[in-house]
Amino acid sequence: MIIDRVEVETINSFSKSELLKEVYGLIWILPILTLLLGITIEVLVIVWLEREISASIQQRIGPEYAGPLGLLQAIADGTKLLFKEDILPSRGDIPLFSIGPSIAVISILLSFLVIPLGYHFVLADLSIGVFLWIAISSIAPIGLLMAGYSSNNKYSFLGGLRAAAQSISYEIPLTFCVLAISLRVILSNSSSTVDIVEAQSKYGFFGWNLWRQPIGFLVFLISSLAECERLPFDLPEAEEELVAGYQTEYSGIKYGLFYLVSYLNLLVSSLFVTVLYLGGWNFSIPYISFFGFFQMNKMVGILEMTMGIFITLTKAYLFLFISITIRWTLPRMRMDQLLNLGWKFLLPISLGNLLLTTSSQLVSL
């Protein structure tokens, strides 16, 4: 059998193109894996910080035995939950029982796609970035409700209903605050998270939306705490009933996933507070780059990207510190007080803030 030289070259070029496609496919996975690794490290740091700050507020000793300064305590807890027995309720809906935690975790993880840590350092710079986050975050209560319903436990079901009612009550004021922020950017046919940050960078520190939208900032702050089910809004975890709410029947790694959802949601809320109100990655104070004197352009680019990530995380950890401090400062609210605050106070205030912002934008046109 004689093979023409042209056919051999064609076969070789085809095999090389297929190999390049596989290589490109692996390269596109690297940013996602890097993001997941960074999120995991951030969650471990947040757990350690909460334990240390809580111990300092209560004047007691925090974690100190697992690793230096107790840094490995969160890893030890996660490993313990991973190897614990996964107990399933005998009369529960097992498929829904297993899917519930996954839906809650995936909906929170997808929110990280539109969060910019630096200038164009974002996985998906979409023109509907903030609204995609609101749409995705609205899926998480479905997983919590599924978890409570499928447990075949009245207390779990009540906890799931409380979680869904709480999320719906505070999702609407939060959405109105986001609309008021992105209104100026919407007029240019974009509500990208990157565009929102760049719109605040024109006037430096005084260009932050914190000063333009102080009422919206307070409403967003309160709604974010309620969305994360943090004190004083942690009503789904009903300690007065001596149960853990919708996660009462869960054990092992599935219980750990709900624990993970709480801190992931807190991290996402902190990053969006930074992006929407605190100027994102902008330093907001003029500074002279040391590398600029030597015309090291590549080093300047790497330095600016690193500084952007550091500034974004620093501002996010400021919100984390506030939320952790509030946990040990304010008492828990009742369910009727929580719903009254959401529907009778925050909703009219956020709506009035949106109308006021809309009126000022129309006047300025």
UniProtKB/TrEMBL annotation:
One Gene Ontology molecular-function label: oxidoreductase activity, acting on NAD(P)H, quinone or similar compound as acceptor
Pfam families: NADHdh
Main location (coarse class): membrane
EC number(s) stated in the UniProt entry for this protein: 7.1.1.-
GO biological process, one term: aerobic respiration
Keywords noted in UniProt: Cell membrane, Membrane, NAD, Plastid, Quinone, Translocase, Transmembrane, Transmembrane helix, Ubiquinone
Domain of life: Eukaryota
Record InterPro entries: NADH_UbQ_OxRdtase_su1/FPO, NADH_UbQ_OxRdtase_su1_CS
Subunit structure: NDH-1 is composed of 14 different subunits. Subunits NuoA, H, J, K, L, M, N constitute the membrane sector of the complex.
This protein's record includes keyword Transmembrane: yes
Membrane topology, record value: Multi-pass membrane protein
Compartments it resides in: Cell membrane; Membrane
Protein name as annotated: NADH-quinone oxidoreductase subunit H
Residue spans crossing the bilayer: 23-49, 94-115, 121-147, 168-186, 257-279, 299-326, 338-356
Taxon lineage: Eukaryota, Viridiplantae, Streptophyta, Embryophyta, Tracheophyta
Similarity comment: family membership: Belongs to the complex I subunit 1 family.
Any one of the GO CC terms: plasma membrane
EC class name: translocase
Role noted for this protein: NDH-1 shuttles electrons from NADH, via FMN and iron-sulfur (Fe-S) centers, to quinones in the respiratory chain. The immediate electron acceptor for the enzyme in this species is believed to be ubiquinone. Couples the redox reaction to proton translocation (for every two electrons transferred, four hydrogen ions are translocated across the cytoplasmic membrane), and thus conserves the redox energy in a proton gradient. This subunit may bind ubiquinone.
